[in-house]
Write a structure and sequence with these properties.
The chain is an alpha+beta fold. 22% of the residues lie in helices and 39% in strands. It has three helices and six strands; from the N terminus they run E-H-H-E-E-E-E-E-H. Strands 1, 2, 3, 4, 5 and 6 form a six-stranded antiparallel β-sheet that branches. 28% of the residues are buried.
Length: 141
Amino acid sequence: MDVSLWKKHIYKFELKDEYLDALGHMNNVSYFRVFEDARCKMIVAGGYTDQLMAKLQQAPVVLKIEVEFRKEVRGDHQFYVESSTLSYEGKVQKVLQELCSEELGVHCSAAFTMGLFDMQTRRLVLPNQEWLKASGLLPLT
């Protein structure tokens, strides 16, 4: 598959007070909350809803996270998360998420190693067509 054709997803969000620490900087765990929200919005926009997950009994799971904090995140900018699948080999998907602002670019990047988990077999499974669409790897029809 030509990765240049894979769709990127943009998630704009408001920096909430609950995301900030006592010094007014984004708390480390809040990055993960925002990245999770962005991934959920991406897959729901791609049609992989909670109802479909329940029907198929297959849901994404995070296996590994690599994070790089580059610039502080404070309440004085507008932020968004850009999410995209970097690769999908067998049962393992690599997703890159970058928390950015228009003014300063990338503040934090995280590479997520993920898989599609089958609730019946309790194992990772190969991606189904619905999951590939939700991940931006196949066009929505």
